[in-house]
Amino acid sequence: MVVTGAGIVSPMGMDFAENAAGFRAGRSAFSPVTLFDVSRQRVGTAGQVDLAETCAGLPHRAASRMDRGTRLAWLAAREALSAAGLSGGAMPMVVGTSAAAMPIGEDYYRAAHLPQTTSRSQLRRVETYQAQRQITDMARLLGVDGRIRVVSNACASGANAIGQAFHLVRMGRAERVLAGGYDALCQLVFAGFDTLQALSPSGIPRPFDAARDGLALGEGAGFMVVESAASAKSRGARVIAEITGYGAATDIHHLTQPHPEGDAALVTMSAACAMAGIAPEQIDYINSHGTGTPLNDVAEGNAIRRWAGDRVSSIKVSSTKSAIGHLLGGAGAVESVICLMAMEGQWLPASLHVREPDPVCAFDLIREPREARVARALTNSFGFGGANATLIFAKEGLP
Amino acid sequence: MSRDLAITGTGAVSPAGWGVAAMMRALESAETLPLSLLERACGDAMVTTPVLRVPAQGATAPKFARMRRSSPITKFAAAAAMEALGETRFAESTAGRLRVGVVFTLTNGCVNYSNRFFSEVLSDPALASPILFPETVFNAPSSHLSALIGSSAPNDTLVGDASAFLSGIDLAAEWIERGDVDGCLVVASEEIDWLSAEGLRHYSKSYLPSEGAAAIYLEAAGGPAMLEHLPDPVSYQFHGRLEAARLMRANLAVADDGATLLVDGLSGVRRFDAPEAAAWSDWSGPRRSPKRVLGESMGAAAAFQVVAAAESLVSGAFRQAIVSSVGSNQQAAGLVLRRDPPAQMP
Predict the structure, then answer these.
(1) Shortest CB distance from B202 goes to which of A123, A130, A146?
(2) Is the predicted pLDDT of residue B109 greater than 70, yes or no?
(3) Per-residue pLDDT band at B1 (split at 50, 70, 90)
(4) What average pLDDT does this structure show over A263-269?
(5) B167 CB within 8 Å of a chain A CB
(6) CATH code for B226-338?
(7) E strands, B52-192, where?
(8) CATH superfamily of B5-220
(9) What is the pTM of this model?
């Protein structure tokens, strides 16, 4: 199973090249939130994408019905298809999202309290609020014809979507699949994380710092074309990487808190490595879930220590959420695309803003971008509700 | 599918009551279930929406610490899932001897808490409840189910129109085929709130919004309800609903032999029923339309259909059952269940 195309939109940039340049340079991409009122929140910043009102190539009528998140998804998916040398075609789509078109739902709620609101305008909001409607419209615009799955496993949604695509191709149920994840900032979710006091009051997350105080939210999308090697070869497509392993498990410790020892994370990392037929020391880079919350980073750190054993000090780890924030349903897919960038450019993105690493960091925490040999990369995604997923990517043709 | 898969457990919580038996009694007698009215103020006016609610009486939702603050969507789902799983498999799962996956499908999700939480945010975000927010996430109910049965096996939530339940069965079949799980609960659940109930009636005032959950336990086994045929759904991006419904009918490739039951998704709202009605217009065999009794439960609707189809085979009344689900805005889907051993027909 190979990746023949990848696309990304994040606060760091609007395509693969802009994002690669930003992560390579160690840029941080947080800014004041202007999409909704944050004046009464504890936190007022996030990784907000500088998204133009009009997107080149997106018909006006379609754009007017498309929510912000799906617009981000459409941009990333279009780039992935283009990079794969495809202009649509027959293939399933597996898409992960957590908040989906929540901003439209918020509009529906507000309008429902206004006596002058028309049923017709509410009908439009109800219809376009639904994720499957948005993704079906997006597929039509992309020229992609095939069954659609919308996965909503909170912050692991994007990784699970790519994992499901991997299995569809691996089992011979599809030659290729367009897969990815997305989420846009919205008021309900922003306020939700704020009420949980999960957001860093400074607005600057410091994953794996001993004094970390929370995450920052972000928005964006990552997509890739997952294809059988035979299909890629037959049409002469460039192979960006192979997908060699995927693991999924459920952490049943608590709805919002991981098991402190990272039990389910250990299961998914071990399962993905077993599927790939490799040992932990053969992983050159881990793009961690690394949210910057006190509990998550300890759980993941413990899982990495248990998984790598006495080789843990050689394992290179960073959290790119330190630069763009937590993209929720888009995180796993965006971070998978960042792994592809690292492998293509042979550099490691950094965990920014770390002043003193937490003692749980028995691994090699990458605090500044650096050049490195990156033949295999692993990415972790852990969501609310205990949805855990691990993906492994490798340069083509490794033994 | 290279392995024989069977539905070996079913569960339902519906406006007819808690349990599959209550649902089947209501479907067989085609009884009219009692309406409730949702009322809320909007300006100087009251907005009133008739709905079918799950009765409070006879609730069988299991008591479980994590679910004490959960909203009805989780309680309905847990009751249906436990009924489908059964006591023996529940014990095996909690003891770690049975790997039970969970696939959860829905359209609306936890609208009660989303409504309450967003109302609090708009009023004063500093006072918005941190207890409500996590329960608003689409996969919160499925997470509670895995915790309830003590299973760390894969758990996925699919969002879609009603037909997504059949995609959920497809995903569960994949997991079983690969050996990722020993068996899988496929669950769909919805709860009523004025947000979603009014939303549905913006499509047609003839819709009767309802709620509830249905679940099946799918495993590699023999049994009276074998999964005979589950074609890929026909998505709507390049097919209208009418064409998609016809293609799905053709893909199901089942003729009326007098011993095959069709469980369709017709609700009685002619404008939205038209594509499915047209696709099956020549069907003269036995037919059941659960929505006409249970109301429009959106994401849970096709799950009720599948449970009704499986139960009809278990009872020995039919040799085969077809489920047709022509979704509102995603895809047309369907499946065929076969009784094994074949029923002795009169």
Answers:
(1) A123
(2) yes
(3) low
(4) 96
(5) yes
(6) 3.40.47.10
(7) 100-106, 155-159, 183-190
(8) Thiolase/Chalcone synthase (3.40.47.10)
(9) 0.97
